[in-house]
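debug: dumping io for the single-chain case to check the tokenizer round-trip. Nothing else runs in this session.
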Amino acid sequence: MNADAKETGHIAVIGVGNILMADDGIGIAVIEELKKEPLPDDVAVYDAGTALGDVLSTLGRCERVILIDSCRAGGEPGSIYRHIGGPDDWRSGAIGNSLHDPGVAHAIQLHRLAGGEIGQIVVIGIEPQDISLREGLSPALQQRLPDIVRMVRKELEAPSETRRGGEA
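debug: decoded output
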């Protein structure tokens, strides 16, 4: 969790990934970009790194959680995927394959088993180009970073019941 995250947020934006594994750090890069801009008062941002379960346990009850992570779903590097669901929809992997364990779906399941509550969950997954052991995003993901940040900002502006899943 970031030290400057607002604990009272009704919407949590969580970046997931490992910054030492190139494009697996895309979720963290998005969070760093979001922290440069003013956000609505009801929004909290979190850098979960590879410890999503730890961050979920600090959230309490959120109306909506937006997770940003790299995932392999077979598209071109930099492809952006969006999956939406309620807490009961997460019985298995949502989209693609997580590049770290536990993956997003597993962390959500564990959180729910422990009695945690989450409202709507939106996963924004980004197809990686490079997941080698090195810091920094690949050129493909660096180029897509502004688009991903714009997509997250649109998520924050739209009423939760009007958003639908799909590929962006």
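debug: round-trip ok. The chain has one domain: 11-158.
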